[in-house]
Write a structure and sequence with these properties.
mainly alpha
Amino acid sequence: MKRNSMHSLPLVSIDHRSHVSFARTAPYLRSSLLLASGGGFALATMLTLTPLFGISLGLWWEALVQTHGHLQLFGWATLFVAGIALYFLPRLRGIPLACPALLPWILGAQVSSLLLRLLSQPLLVITGWLFWKILLVLSGALEVLALPVLFLLLVLTASRTSAKKSTVEGARSIAPFIFGAFVGLSLAALLNLFNCITALTNGGLVPTTGDEANITLGLFGFLVPVALAMSARMLPLYARIQPFPSRLLWVLALVYFGGLIFWLSGLFIPGMVFGPLSGLGLMAIGIVMLLFTGYFLYLMRNRTQLPPQIVALAPHPEQLVKRVRQRTQEERLRYGPYVALIGTAYLWGSLGAIFMVIDGIAVLLFKALPITVDIIQHSFAIGFITLLICGIAVRMLPGLSSKAIRSPWLVTATLILGNLATLLRVGSLLPGPMLPGSEVFFALSGPTGLALILCLAINLWPAL
């Protein structure tokens, strides 16, 4: 079939400003969706259903838990966020991405690393064979070759001189979040290699401290900061809200990463898991998230209202307001309830932040964690990161590829499935007396999450 010329435009490798085109970063997004549907969320379905059917849970189950967590953070979420960042950040800076020829090699190394991890760790636990040990270490080595290079590309890109002052200011406002996030991602890759080596003498399982630190670096060291930074720059554009103040972003970034350092120090210093460092770290990150999301939700509430200064300068204010409302209605018909997806993502992020503040106070006063870290992790990983990706992607990717999503009704389905999956997963982790039937909720959370990612993949695939 002869392809329409308009549909062929995104396949050009470099656009008219010498920026890397969307066709060069789209493979990151496609790989992310495939790894999520065939790996991370599929494993989650298996892990949540096995206890309900009384299947014996042994070391193999613990190995799958660790593999599932790694695939979700460094496969599904990281590759999707990286694909958007590699396209968006150089344009924000106003200069082309450095060394674009490395993009397919980075993607190949990371996907190979994740597939080797998926294959080798569970089989190493079961068999103990040397072959699986070699593949497990190789998976860690490949990740070290992939993820830190992303940071290097951004550093080389940022070191170039931009021609426009406005683009420099736009990039500078989120620079602390972006820089800290990719440092965290690089450290997570190095720690993962160490964890893979350590697992060889631990029956194939990564020690608990190393696994927790790796998850913390991946989720709170990379994904959450990038989500905050990208939201600060992209959401005002797509949701037509006022931008975040630059000074506020810098202050929040410094407090956030200070809290992350305290939290990680509490993990690695013996006897400090319930010490003041961990408590202060949890409180700092939680407060930053609450301030950020509170400000964001306040702006989202008035997103259809034009700023008074713009209305005052317009020759016909009534017609301007009418056009804005009409455009908002057209977006709803074309993209579905994507704003609701973003809004509920920040509500789940706020809930996770409240849990962190509660835990931080409890650690400082009573040296205890009333809310498990697992609840906090899933509030952010599924509720905040996944729903935020779903909301931003369905609105942004059609504009980048000049192709439409499959259906706005699938966005509605994504909204329902995403919130249901988060509710089932977080709710099932609450104490049993507070939530009867939690084992059923836990079992249903996996299949619901898998349905969510399949729905997203089907909807986005035409635009990719």
